[in-house]
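Students often ask why we bother encoding 3D structure as a string. The short answer is that it lets us treat folding as translation between two languages. Here is a chain of 319 residues written in the first language.
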Amino acid sequence: MTPEFDLIETYFTMPAQKALLGVGDDCALIGLAAGNELAISTDTLVSGVHFFADADPFKLGRKALAVNLSDLAAMGAAPRFVTLAITLPSIDPAWLSAFSRGFFELAEQAGIELIGGDTTRGPLSMTLTVLGEVPTGDALRRDRAQDGDDIWVSGSVGGAALGLKYLQGTVTLKPGVAERALERLHAPVPRNKIGEKLRGVANAAIDISDGLVADLAHICQRSQLAAAIEWALIPISPALLSVGPDVRMACALAGGDDYELCFTAHERMREAIAVIASEAGVPLTRIGRMRSGAANVSVLDERGNELNTAIAGFDHFSV
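And here it is in the second language, the structure alphabet:
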């Protein structure tokens, strides 16, 4: 067996259970349940761009899958299958063992099956494609928000961005605070169960990967509506209470890597959303409302005046 195929056999093979044919052939074969649609998403993670070169491989393997599972959560799709194309500078058994353990630990928890991919040599990067199932017509889309919808956020925001700032040396944090912020950065928890429960409850949804304001703006653009959110209502990460107001606002409004869900729903769904939050054990917080107008996001103070935030979310090609 060649080193490449030995690598695949050793670190990236799992028995096919839901797939008709998994790892080991030219293509995987999958079946789709009647009455369901296939949700597909692809993300690439590059060393030096999405993670530090010395990142813990176990946490990196878990996070690589988590950020892709989050896309399925935002669509209300149940995770089913994933492919992994990984580029490696060399074959490092210790690194690969830790990476694959982190990957498969989360895969088992999420009920998702690795069915194929590719390996090649070069600068460290990984591209994952996830496939999920959602009942026909029930997907949570960005273009379905309605005028008057409540705007909601799961969990808390800004902690991951604070962890990144700490690693970059732009903020100083006490040890306990730094640990919590770094956990948010390195170990995001995809909200798949919440996403599935929001089918028929939410009108539109997105996951917060590039920042709350930037990602909510995508819903505004696709739905041709404006959004107004209240700064005082936004559930900020507790770690942000240890930094100044400017850093706190920048992290909460523009910080990426939270992988929480932002969604809109009619006000009559408030009780149903409270039940979902209780069942999931994750806070779901109402932070504002969709309204008619130009497709943008306004952040309001406690008096209803618009704050001059002048911040933007993450963009790969911004200067």
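Translate back mentally: Residues 57-75 form the longest helix (19 residues). Keep this in mind for the problem set.
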